[in-house]
Amino acid sequence: IQPSRAVTLTGGHPPSHSNFLDIIGMIKSNYPYLKWIVANTTLDRITTTKPITPDYIVEMKNRGLNRLLVMVPTLDPSEYRYIRIRNAVQSHPPDLCRVLDNIDAALELGFTIDISYIDFGLPNQRLEQVYDYFLQRAIKYPLQLGPFELQKLVAIGEGKNYLDSISEPSRKEL
């Protein structure tokens, strides 16, 4: 039996766990044969009030994390806030520019990044724009342009259900 080559930390937002960096270090030291230590993240915030910074990305890399799964559903900042607002604190709204800057910082550090996309059916949300934006980065960096098949979730109503789950006061605050 061949051992697994990857561990993926997922469920909610792994960087928000108080021992996230220690967990990465423990995985790396106990399972040195792993090719990938992966985290699902927004690359926006560690907590609702503490943003992810390039220094934190360096620390994740130093501990052994080497691959990130990041959902970028739109390149429109207001639509990004609209999609991500339910987990945000009003004084610290989601910030698409920070996410894109952090993706670039992670790429510069040698992370492999998987970009996923879910079509929420918003007016300015365009798969082609997201794809083209990251295609330019994929020329230079190890960037996976997928799993774009996630857009199938819209066919079963998942994207709409997610937006419907956002409270009305949160939508008006945008």
Overview of this protein structure:
- The chain has 174 residues and is an alpha/beta fold.
- It is built from seven helices and five strands; from the N terminus they run βαβαβααβαβαα.
- It has a five-stranded parallel sheet with strand order 1-2-3-4-5, with helices on one face.
- Strand 4, helix 5 and strand 5 form a beta-alpha-beta unit.
- The longest helix is centred in the middle third of the chain and has 13 residues.
In a nutshell, what does this entry contain?
This protein has helices at 20-30, 54-63, 77-84, 96-108, 127-138, 158-164, 168-172, and strands spanning 6-9, 36-40, 67-71, 112-116, 143-145.
